[in-house]
């Protein structure tokens, strides 16, 4: 073996090994993400349970829950858009449960024209999912316009401080009135069920790294072939 081949061989082996290791790491991430998505799906599809005493975003994100309580003002309006109905707002209110604990409740969508309508406090039963939204980008998300009551993201921590609740958000997909009026459906908002929408692109990343490893090794072989032929 020519001394001129030592450096290409070392470079080729090290590069290929690094790329293979990155591909293997992505396969590990794929296994982890697949298990996570299965766990989230199980939480979302399970029968609703009471909100845990100490909700934790790692253990209870997307947990399907049911809570009965009474809404109270004021509302917070988070800017959103519906594919069929156009721009509007999510209505976020305090929900006081029977045990006195106060949560944030996302009651769903209203169009812009209904932003200012009065939605009186009433007893309701909410079924939905616990969510800790990650919608706030401190660099690009504007601060809420408190005067106009327009929020540009669901910032659970800040909304909870504004409304005097715990920073736990229940996103409703079913709302039932509990006032004994005989009208069982809540019609003042359009609930927007949670969509986990957690990306899982690790297989594509793994294929990319393994493909690069293959290309790197082939380029190394070609380089060595040219050295042996005396072209380099």
User: Unreliable runs, pLDDT <50, ≥5 residues?
Assistant: none
The neighbouring-strand order within the major sheet is: 1-3-4-6-5
Which structural category fits the helices and strands?
alpha+beta
Order of helices and strands: HHEEEEEHEH
Radius of gyration: 27 Å
**DSSP strand tally:** 6
Biggest sheet, in brief? 5 strands, mixed, barrel
Number of helical segments?
4
* β-strand amount: 15-25%
Overall mean pLDDT stands at 87
Helix content: 25-40%
**What is the terminal-to-terminal distance?**
15 Å
Overall 3D shape: elongated
Describe the structure.
The chain has a 5-stranded mixed barrel with strand order 1-3-4-6-5. It has 232 residues and is α+β, with helices and mostly antiparallel strands. The longest helix is centred in the N-terminal third of the chain and has 40 residues, at 6-45. It starts with 5 loop residues before the first helix and ends with a helix. The chain has 4 helices and 6 strands, in the order H-H-E-E-E-E-E-H-E-H.
Short description:
By secondary structure, this protein is an alpha+beta fold. It is 34% helix and 24% strand.
Q: Secondary-structure map with pairings?
A:
Elements lengths: L5 H40 L11 H4 L3 E8 L4 E7 L3 E12 L4 E10 L11 E9 L24 H8 L5 E9 L24 H28 L3
Parallel strand pairs: 4-6
Antiparallel strand pairs: 1-3, 1-5, 2-3, 3-4, 5-6
